[in-house]
Amino acid sequence: FRVSPLRTASKRVFDIFAAVLILMLAWPLMLLTALAIRLESGPGQPILYFQNRVGERGRIFRLVKFRSMRTDAEGDGVARWASADDARVTRVGRVIRKLRLDELPQLWNVLCGTMSFIGPRPERPEFVAALAKEIPYYTLRHCVKPGLTGWAQLRYPYGSSAEDAAEKLTFDLFYVKNHNLRFDTLIFLQTVEVV
């Protein structure tokens, strides 16, 4: 799982190029998404959602997304898996999740270097702690920066359980072991096709 300095540099260049390209194309959609969230939720309600996630080498970072759930979605402080038909999701949230617009603010995380454009999806610290106890080698997915999109997202449907996480891990570890510029480009093009 060791990565050469040349690969690290080429991946960073790819990340910046992809993030800037998507930002240039998607900024009108991002403005419309922010406006739709504001109209649905009303003034004073947050448009963005910040959440701690586990990144490269197990470091915690703040992930940013468009808010797609009610503001009281986890009012009791207990972390819960999001499901495909989650009742906590707002009307606008359903649309932006389906179109994957809720993920676009994560381009800021990519530009800041806490995430890569391509890599395993970052999980919440609470889930990582539990999954690392249940699933052998789970923490190896943190050998690389987490990504906005990845091989597991393309090859496995929406996951909301430990069993799903175990299945997705096989794709994540394949990516961690075999990632290169050509593989990243393939994942990028397939992601654009899916979206």
Mean pLDDT across the residues is: 90
The low-pLDDT segments are: none
Biggest sheet layout = 2 strands, antiparallel
Got a strand count?
4
- The 3D shape can be described as globular
Helix content: 40-55%
Strand order of the largest sheet: 1-2
Strand content: 5-15%
Structural class per helix/strand content?
Answer: mainly alpha
N- and C-termini, Cα separation: 30 Å
General description of the model:
There is one protein chain. This protein is mainly α. It has seven helices and four strands. The strands form two sheets. The protein has a two-stranded antiparallel sheet. A two-stranded parallel sheet has the order 3-4. A hairpin with a 5-residue loop joins β1 and β2. The radius of gyration is 16 Å and the shape is globular. The mean pLDDT is 90.
Set down the secondary structure blueprint.
Elements (H helix, E strand, L loop, with lengths): L4 H37 L6 E7 L5 E7 L24 H8 L7 H7 L3 E3 L6 H10 L12 E3 L1 H5 L6 H17 L2 H14 L1
Parallel strand pairs: 3-4
Antiparallel strand pairs: 1-2
Helix pairs in contact: 1-2, 1-3
Task: Give structural attributes.
7 helices, two-stranded antiparallel ribbon, 4 strands, 195 residues, globular, 50% helix, single chain, mainly alpha, two-stranded parallel ribbon
Short overview:
The protein has 7 helices and 4 strands.
